Amino acid sequence: MRNLLLCLLSFVVFLIGCESKHPYKPEPEPYIPKDILQCIAQIDGLWGKELRKEAKHMSEKDFIGITHASYGMWIRNNWGLWKGSRLKLYFSVRGAGFAENISAVIFASYYRYVTGKKINFGELLKTYQG
After folding, report:
1. Which residues does the UniProt record annotate as the domain DUF6794 (predicted)?
2. Which residue, of 24, 34, 69, 104, is most buried by count of CB atoms within 10 Å of its CB?
């Protein structure tokens, strides 16, 4: 019995020592925008001037195609577009409920913002409904 208590005490001391040497630091949660304007502002803050400049030399279709797999995946996963985030709800009540369609609307809106074109959000929602 004494050996069992010593073994248990040693294990507890070991765990306490490990915890103090390697404290768990969770990654900060990314901010989830609440509407399309905040999406544009967030993307604009994340991307550098070079990426914005490159976007100006592409077609909207090419821009959406290039961003879909890389940045689009990050947005779909981290902004909760596969789940019930407030951004997902914002788009769902406007007719665009599928995560990949939502990211396409976001990138088309951003592209139009960067290139100085009218965003025409309602038109984009109709184009990417689903």
Report:
1. 32-113
2. 104
